[in-house]
Write a structure and sequence with these properties.
It is a single chain. By secondary structure, the protein is an alpha/beta fold. 50% of the residues lie in helices and 11% in strands. Strand 4, helix 4 and strand 5 form a beta-alpha-beta unit.
C-alpha cells in the first residue's frame, strides 16, 4: 500500500519511515510537513491511506482532525488514519465524527500500526465504512459520553483555572444563569456531581489539557 504521512515533526516522521519501510505491506511511504499544500499533493499522488497527526504544529492554521474533515469533503473515498501522542477518548470520538477510518497512538508498536493500516486498506478497497482503534478496551467509555459543546468547554476551562462563576460570565459575556446551566449540562454529560470531578474527568477524557 502507498501511505502519505502528514506531520510537522521531522524526527518522528523519519523514525516512522525507517520502522515501516522494511515491511512488504508498504509499497511507498511519503511524508509531508505542510498541510496547506496537501490538496495539491493528493491531486498529484493520491495514496492508498493518508496518515494524519492531530498536532500539526503551532504554525498550522488547523489541527489534524479539522484537516481530515476538509480532505474528505474533497476526497471522500480516501481512507484516513489519525495518529496522536494523546490516546484520549475525546480525540477518538472526534476522529470518528470527522470520518476517519482509524485511530492509533504514537506509543503503539510498529506492528500494531501496520496491522491497523492493513485492515483500513482492506476495508477501503471493499468499500466498507469502519472505525478501527487498537485501544478497544476504552471504546465503551468513548461511546458513553455525549460531546461537550464549545461553550461548555470554555466554561469548563475557566473553571479549571479557578475562575469564579461571576467572572466567567463577565469574560464570556453571558449571564451567571447561563454559566450555571452550562455547568449543569457538563455534570450530566460527564456523570459527575462537582466542578472538581468535572475538571478531573475532562482532563482524563482530553477535553482539557493537564493542569
Amino acid at each position: 500500500m502507498k501511505v502519505l504521512f502528514i506531520d510537522d515533526h521531522i524526527l518522528f516522521a523519519r523514525s516512522l519511515e525507517l520502522a515501516l519501510q522494511e515491511s512488504p505491506l508498504i509499497e511507498e511511504f511519503r511524508w509531508a510537513a505542510d498541510p496547506g499544500a496537501l490538496e495539491r499533493e493528493l491531486e498529484d499522488h493520491l495514496p492508498d491511506i493518508l496518515l494524519v497527526d492531530i498536532n500539526l504544529g503551532r504554525g498550522a492554521a488547523l489541527d489534524g482532525l479539522t484537516l481530515t474533515g476538509q480532505i474528505l469533503s474533497r476526497f471522500p473515498s480516501l481512507p484516513i488514519v489519525i495518529l496522536s501522542g494523546y490516546d484520549l477518548p475525546v480525540y477518538r470520538q472526534e476522529a470518528r465524527r470527522m470520518g476517519a477510518m482509524g485511530f492509533v497512538s504514537k506509543d503503539a508498536q510498529p506492528e500494531t500500526l501496520l496491522t491497523l493500516l492493513k485492515d483500513v486498506y482492506r476495508a477501503g478497497r471493499e468499500g466498507r465504512s469502519v472505525f478501527l482503534c487498537p485501544s478497544g478496551d476504552r471504546e465503551p467509555e468513548l461511546l458513553f459520553y455525549e460531546p461537550l459543546t464549545k461553550a461548555e468547554k470554555d466554561v469548563l476551562l475557566l473553571t479549571a483555572q479557578g475562575v469564579k462563576r461571576k467572572e466567567i460570565a463577565r469574560r464570556l459575556q453571558v449571564s451567571e444563569r447561563t454559566v450555571s446551566n452550562h455547568l449543569q449540562h457538563i455534570f450530566e454529560k460527564l456523570s459527575v456531581s462537582s466542578s472538581v470531578e468535572a475538571v478531573t474527568k475532562a482532563i482524563r477524557l482530553g477535553y482539557l489539557p493537564p493542569l
